[in-house]
Amino acid sequence: MKSIFEKNIREVVIDIHDLEMEKRNWKLLIEQYETFEKDTFVHWFFGRMSRAQLGQFIYKHCNHHLKQFGA
């Protein structure tokens, strides 16, 4: 049986001692997007993104990882 990680470029293992704290921190980072005041954002790979595009990117990126780990 193949590993679910075989299709990824690399497997990253992170030692998380306090999952609840990590969840709270993640929620805070997402909530901070509400106060993002710039009209554009420059992503290292995708380049210049509008505020709306950034919001879509954040949603899709989070959703990808939640699905990846079965959340």
How many helical elements?
Answer: 2
Poorly predicted runs are: none
The count of DSSP E runs of length 2 or more, i.e. the number of strands, is 2
Q: Which structural category do the helix and sheet elements fall into?
A: alpha+beta
Oligomer: single chain
Blueprint (SSEs and pairs):
Layout: H1 19-32, E1 40-43, E2 47-50, H2 51-68
Give a structural overview.
The radius of gyration is 15 Å and the shape is globular. The longest helix has 18 residues, at 51-68. The chain has 2 helices and 2 strands, in the order αββα. The chain has a two-stranded antiparallel sheet. With 71 residues, the protein is of the alpha+beta class. Helix content is 45%, strand content 11%. The mean pLDDT is 80.
Gist of the model:
The protein has about 70 residues and is of the alpha+beta class. The chain has 2 helices and 2 strands.
Question: Notable features of this structure?
Answer:
71 residues, alpha+beta, 45% helix
